[in-house]
Amino acid sequence: MVDVPKLLEVNELEVFDHERRPEIDALWKRIDSLADVPNGWLDEEGLAPSPETLARVREVLARLLADHHEIPRPKVFPTPEGGLQAEWVFDRVSADACFQRDGLVVCSAVSTEHEGALDATFEEREVTRFDATPLAEWLVKARSL
């Protein structure tokens, strides 16, 4: 019988030690704080992120950090449409992934040194709490713009 390594569940990160646990805890704390964002938070407009969106972003970004050590912890902000935006700034590239309420993840990266840009859209089934590899691969490509 072949010994197959156990895939660490996202919720198990709170129980088991992981080398990136402090980063993941800080990220979760930030996402949890966004649950207090009210409707109308942006000049009397702007939807509050839904509990489902908050949970999804928390799980996907935890998976991203746990499985892809080369990806730094993003900054996370609410969007006016009720989603969350994860933002990374690399040396000369700004990249963001907008987690929309409908489950899409819309990604955009631009270079500050030249006209390079890279966009991608992932469906909910492509980037999950079990596998954030497509997002990680996009970020690696974006970082090298």
Q: Please, could you describe this protein's structure?
A:
It is a single chain. The protein is α+β, with helices and mostly antiparallel strands and 145 residues long. It has one domain (10-143). The chain has helices at residues 21-33, 51-67, 133-143, and strands at 75-78, 84-89, 93-99, 105-111, 117-122. The chain has a 5-stranded antiparallel beta sheet. The longest helix is centred in the middle third of the chain and has 17 residues, at 51-67. The termini are far apart. Mean pLDDT is 90; it is low at 1-6.
Task: Write a concise synopsis of the structure shown.
This protein has 145 residues and is α+β, with helices and mostly antiparallel strands.
Q: In which order are the strands of the major sheet placed?
A: 1-2-3-4-5
Report the β-strand fraction as a percent range: 15-25%
Tally the beta strands.
5
The main sheet comes to: 5 strands, antiparallel
Structural class: alpha+beta
The number of domains:
1
What does the overall shape look like?
globular
Tell me the quaternary state.
Answer: single chain
Task: Calculate the terminal CA-CA distance, rounded to whole Å.
Answer: 45 Å
Q: Mean of the pLDDT scores?
A: 90
Total of DSSP H or I helical runs spanning 4+ residues:
3
Please estimate the helix content: 25-40%
Q: Tell me the Rg in angstroms.
A: 16 Å
Q: From N to C, what is the helix and strand string?
A: HHEEEEEH
Residue runs with pLDDT of under 50 for 5 or more positions: 1-6
